[in-house]
Please model this.
Amino acid sequence: MIQQINVSELQLNPINPRKIKAANLKKLQQSIMLFPKMLNEAKLIVIDEGNVVLEGNQRVKVLQEEILAKEPFAWKVVLQDNDRYQTMSENEKEAVISFWEKWKENPIVIVDRHEGLTDEQKKEVIIKGNKEFGEFDYGKAEILFDEVTLVNFGVDEGVFYDPDKDPTVVTSIKGSRVKKIDMLIFGKYSVPVTREEYDLLREKYEEYVDTACVDFGFVKDIVSKLNAR
Model:
């Protein structure tokens, strides 16, 4: 059933298997703010009878936390490095901001409400419908269904590959323990890093983007902190 609802009444699904990195969350916000019709025409948010989101959790997260809860200055910071936004005239940019300021006064979205679904049917909607920005948290996905069922739903079976159980993805350094590695690539350089180092660097990157709302300047920020020690 198609209907209108205040976005603040929607509840994010705690077992949503889709997770999103800060950089992709920013891209999704840019996409929503510059093309708001995608919310009400391209792909509707799907909810159940209790207003719990079955499909579109990341869009709701952006609407609630990044648009409704924040002011125009924060929006402009997110939009400023978007190619399309950069080519807009000042009047066009102002029209974008004005649209969302007006929306905040009455934050209505169109949703597709599914009532009477069994728990199993809701789980199926969650798995099949959550293929937007971000990546799967396959730990949560496997809580909903077993691996075979997920593959039958169209989930790539390759995602269940666990590199930590693959003895071929290691490097041996004489005199040291065998360690898992990833390659950190920049320009013509490829630097081997342990999985622990890679995860730490990724965590610092996501913290920086969450704070600065942009990704440029990350390396300079790290180097500056190292030099300050």
Observations:
- The chain has eleven helices and eight strands.
